[in-house]
Structure prediction request, 158 residues.
Amino acid sequence: MALAQRLRYPNTTMPNAKLNIRQERFCLGLVEGLPQSRAYIEAGYTARGNAAEVEASKMVRLPKVAARLSALQAEAAHRSETTVDTLVAELDEMLLMAKEIENASAGVAAVMAKARLLGLIVDRSEVTTTVRKPMREPTDRHQMTLEEWQARFAPKAN
Prediction:
């Protein structure tokens, strides 16, 4: 079995036929956590009563669907293995490499990325708004009310 096929279908034999679009959607729905009957309906199949549960149960047992489900679950498990700790360890390695080749900018980039991952640096921008109401007259100390402002400055209806 070719490498690409083993990655797509780990620990299984390659199915003879590919999944159709609805079967693929069904598998993706199951991997996202939908119940079988809901994934069956979301995939585009029509069912009345408890037929969705029955047909979804049948579909899960199809060899090609079962193989695709196990492949998708393996991919999800692999993605969940990547944690902040593993990323920090990789960045530590990059920092050591940057020091070895005397590349200061790469070292700084690794340190900054590590600090962001650990939450020591947060990229944010503050948005402030200032609400200013015009004065009745330039010498007044009191601001206009909304009704006064609208009466004075709102466009006139024809």
